[in-house]
Amino acid sequence: MATNGQSSQSGRGKNKGFWKKEEEEALIDCLLELSCDQQWKGGGGFRNGYLNQLELMLNTKFPGCGLKAIPHIESKFK
């Protein structure tokens, strides 16, 4: 039991992080950029590895943001 008034619960969804508006806009821009690139198109969607490419693109735009392909970007689509 926590003594400082904070909950000591942990588990799925308890440490949910929130995206900044700028990060969301950059994610959309990166997705649009990937959708125009023939290298990443495949079968009505994106090819394998597109999440890692998005991670690289976002880290270029926001150095030190710490966004990872899994779980951050992947969970944004769910």
Characterization of this structure:
This protein has 78 residues and is mainly α. The protein has one domain (21-77). Helices cover 47% and strands 5% of the residues. Strands 1-2 form a two-stranded antiparallel sheet. Strand 1 (41-42) and strand 2 form a beta hairpin. Helix 1 (21-36) packs across helix 2. Residues 1-8 have low confidence and may be disordered. This is Myb/SANT-like domain-containing protein. It comes from Chenopodium quinoa.
Low-confidence stretches: 1-8
Q: Which H/E pattern describes the elements? A: HEEHH
Portion in strands:
5-15%
Total domain count = 1
Helix content: 40-55%
Q: Can you count the beta strands?
A: 2
Q: What kind of sheet is the major sheet?
A: 2 strands, antiparallel
Task: Classify the secondary structure makeup into a structural class.
Answer: mainly alpha
User: How far apart lie the N and C ends?
Assistant: 32 Å
- Report the oligomer: single chain
Number of helices: 3
Mass-distribution shape? globular
Protein name: Myb/SANT-like domain-containing protein
Descriptive labels:
mainly alpha; 47% helix; single chain; Myb/SANT-like domain-containing protein; 3 helices; 78 residues; 5% strand; two-stranded antiparallel sheet
